[in-house]
Amino acid sequence: MATFLYKLGRLAFRRRHFVALIWVALLTLAGVGAASAPPAGNSSFSIPGTEAQKAFDLLEQRFPGQSADGATARVVFKAPSGETMTDAGNKATVEKTVDDLADGSEVASVADPYEGNAVSKDGTIAYASVKYDVSGMELEESTKDALEDAAQQARDAGLTVEVGGDALQAVPETGATEIIGIAVAAVVLVITFGSLVAAGLPLLTALIGVGIGVSTITALASALELGSTTSILAMMIGLAVGIDYALFIVSRYRAELAEGREREEAAGRAVGTAGSAVVFAGLTVVIALVGLAVVNIPMLTKMGVAAAGTVAIAVLIALTMIPALLGYAGRRVKPAGAKGRLLGRSRKGKGAEQPEGQGTPEGQGRPGGQPKANLGTRWASFVVRRPLAVLLLGVIGLGAAAIPAASLELGLPDDGSQPTSTTQRRAYDLLSEGFGAGFNGPLMVVVDAKGAAAPNDAFTDVSDEIKGLDGVMAVTPPAPNKDGDTATITVVPDSKPSSVQTEDLVHAIRDAGGDIEADTGAETLVTGSTAMNIDVSEKLNDALLPYLVLVVGLAFLLLIVVFRSILVPLKAALGFLLSVLAALGAVVAVFQWGWLSGLMGVEETGPVMSMMPIFMVGVVFGLAMDYEVFLVTRMREAFVHGEKPNQAVVTGFKHGARVVTAAAVIMMAVFAGFIGSSESMVKMIGFGLAIAVFFDAFVVRMAIVPAVLALLGKRAWWLPKWLDRALPNVDVEGEGLRTAEERGSDPDEDRELVRT
What we know:
By secondary structure, this protein is α+β, with helices and mostly antiparallel strands. The chain has helices at 2-14, 16-36, 51-62, 88-102, 141-156, 177-193, 196-224, 228-258, 263-290, 298-329, 375-385, 387-402, 423-435, 455-467, 500-520, 529-563, 567-592, 597-600, 612-640, 645-672, 680-712, 721-726, 735-743; strands at residues 72-78, 107-111, 125-132, 160-165, 410-411, 443-448, 472-475, 479-480, 486-493, 523-527, 608-609. A hairpin with a 5-residue loop joins strand 8 (479-480) and strand 9.
């Protein structure tokens, strides 16, 4: 592996014009494809194998032409104080609004509030339901404008009017904080490298990689039914790993320069060593993201595969475009320890700049010739002296942060989770005020009586049975189809859609349906957005353990190959579980309990998004293994070269702590930048990933990992001899390159150095 990547790095350095041309051409091609692609339609949200999806499919089959997936809108009217919606003037305004809405070319139907009993008991609130022929993402702008104009005309007449439903849904915005996150990353890179040129390389390559990835997703969005959230998440993860992977290779390049190597040789060795770690770190992220397919929710699978593709592009760019750009940069990228003009003096002396290709250990030139220990060295030395105390403190701290996770409640966002500044949220609140909390989440019961002897009797039995259940506020009469073999019944709970009481009601209806089917032969199914959300949560919960076993198991085997150890990968996996539980606890505290919600821009607390735990497990595991690979490979590199276990830990921190710290801060800044998104799911994922990176990088990898390795000593690197012989030697540490150097041969010509 190291030898192959070494050759690739040198080739990219020498043929930099060709490499740069290829990536620019790919970026241009992806951009043209995105610009010429048709707009993305509605991303189908199907949940194979669930009752809600089965009922939805049955509705499309038995009630053709009703546009089951068409957009909907609820235009909610509230009378001025002291008036009612039945007053002549207000009634005339509503009827005119209904007539205006019915004129739209994409409108399937409009329900008049006064004909459909859609006026509250106190007469102050009414609503008109609008059904469209196409989905919300496919609605023409003229149709949306007509809806807003009709609502505005009713407002001008003196009514309070708000519009709910998905007809006005818009592509989520990330806000200015995303740019702030990239700016923070730029500042960290400048501080780390002391040079604008060196700092600009990771940013440039990350932006090119994300540009290619997101443009490709945009170009394929219509054909593959990719939602708008897919590109945002791909951008989030692609930016973070793209900057980090490039950072590690540039840092290693500067270290190789400091050892006196020529620039082409330094580029080759940087790609051969740090590039090997990049490959395996990227592979763990890809495994974790693609593994989301085991959940069998198409939308989640597409999100994972799209993000994994962006990560793969980031790896390829880091391995090829970074050495090419280093060739363009020339002397403007300084050896490690040599500061450019931007930050003034060199750390090695009084500002003298080193000759080309030369370098000395950091701190040389101090009185007595003793190198000054950097912060990473001092911290690692402290940890190996007090490993048990550091380990206990880290575990107890993460355990305390994880306590809120025990109160985790799952759900999917609806209009009730929107900011109060949106018309959708205000419509939601008005409907709750006028018709009860459960009105915003009605349940649709589908009765399939095709196999029943008396379909109408079966419909009546189901309706009567539901009326007798606890938690039911209203039940509409059965509405059969033309063939009379299937009917729908709308059930309004007396609790809000995301409550435990509504979930219990769904299960109660399904249990009662089982008894009715045994008596009459009619099958009862519960669907609707509320039931769909409940089924999603249950499906995700059921898939979490198999997903953990698959992803952690595959990555565990991969890390055994990388580290040639049993205990080091086991420790990495256990540390990840600690960090992800602590991150989930923080998410619950902020988004469910409301702690610091104002600071995070969370206007409405509620259940945590159903996809959050499994998505966080997938992404955080991959990112956690990044730091594990980059930090621990330097420790193993020192250990296999003869250093004692504790000294190897210190050496690993001496070379890797500064870079890993910078990488973690960059990744946190990029993820935190998405907290400003208008999409609640993106906001929650951005916060969750940022806090998870903090816990994993600074508590697990910087404290718990060195403490455990210090306690284990040589046992940390134990591997059964039979397994050592069976495993391939991937040579992540670049041992084959050092062997060639010691023999005086050129690794470019020595093909038997490493068994890949």
